[in-house]
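In this supplementary section we document a worked example of the pipeline. Step one takes a protein sequence of length 441 as its only input; no multiple sequence alignment statistics are reported here. Step two produces a three-dimensional model, which step three serialises into structure tokens for compact storage. The input and output of this example are shown verbatim.
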Amino acid sequence: MPIIGNLSDVYGRKALLTVPVILSIIPPVILAYRRTKKFYYVYYVLRTLTGMICDGGIQCVSLAYVADHMSQANRASAIGILAGVGSAAFVFGTLADHFLSTSQIFLVATFASTVAAVYMQIFLEDTACFKDSIEQPILRTEMEDIDLDRETAKNIKVFKKVPSLKDVICFLKKSATFSLAASVAFLNSLAEGGEQAPFQYFLKARFHFKKDNFADVMLIANIFSATSQLLLMPMLAPLTGEEVLLCLGLTAGFSNLLIDSVAQKIWIPYTAALLPIFTSLVKPSLQSIVSKQIGLSEQGIAQGCISSISSTANILSPFIYSPLTALFLSEKAPFPYPGFSILCIGLAWVKFVFFVYAVDSHYSQCNDKDDISSQDAKLLAAVYGLRGFFCSPLVGRGNRLFYECSVYSFLYPVAKSRVSSREDLKGCRNGMIRENLSYFL
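The serialised model returned by step three reads:
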């Protein structure tokens, strides 16, 4: 994804968006033609290969395209609408599945993918991207007015070639705010991944869910997700800011999983599926925060990095939560709580919210805005809180991490007022950030 995003920064969004859109047509064509065993294996291989480019490529380039055409004031609303359109498409696809035969499903999928490619080529305007920072105009319009933090403006460079892994890591480490956002995205996606496969395994073992039950729960969740992203986020984001919506969504995610973890009746997961009306605000809010921290010439690679980090977390999540779910559903469980693994997923989110608000209340007392922004404080708090939750079961440092974060959140404003130079303070802050990121990078 960073490669596709970086190439879109150099050669334009439309050119790079064309590649994954056209590739997405190929897999459904195979099963629309014939559905034998051999054709299925061909579909499986091609779907895996094209999915490496299409699944995250379309999203990251689309987000970069939105950033190119929207001002900061309207960017959160636009990203929310973009996410809402995707949720609405999932809803219509699920509904169509109830009325179409198997052969018709793949024909409709092929037709829809083809229409998307044709529509993009005819109606979508290309974005003129600056290949070098020296080509950017000195006087920007409101659409181009990006408030870069000082470190981003000084250190982040535009890669003029295909970025290597070393380049991507360098890009992540150059900006403190972006590094923290990437860490939050990883841990948030780790929790989201636990809400998928391990949670479905829990529902099947606990309530004997079948494919129709899963489809109904997913349909309910996506209906409310689409409603929230299309209506609530455009209205609330300009008023409250993305940080408030992020915390609201994480709190709702914890409430959802807490209810499911103690559920005794089959109808309870259906009721809890109403809470994604707020949970669905998490990802677009985080994407909007990232977009506002990066210049126009780095939007593609930035969103590509976030997308690849999130995908990696989704891959790792089942390896963490599935064994834990299986353990507490078996007779060898340490204590009788079948939904304990589901609660652990939710605790990651609620601890995230606690540290966001705890540290933000102390940083708000500082009036010097040049050293560390409000988003820096919130994202730094998020890394501390989530590191404490995920690392303490592995290395036994949960209590120390909790104490460390609490002391740091109280003493940082005091230390800030006593440091003689801004460079010393920045060095202290970056040292703390690097120490935390060493757990993940």
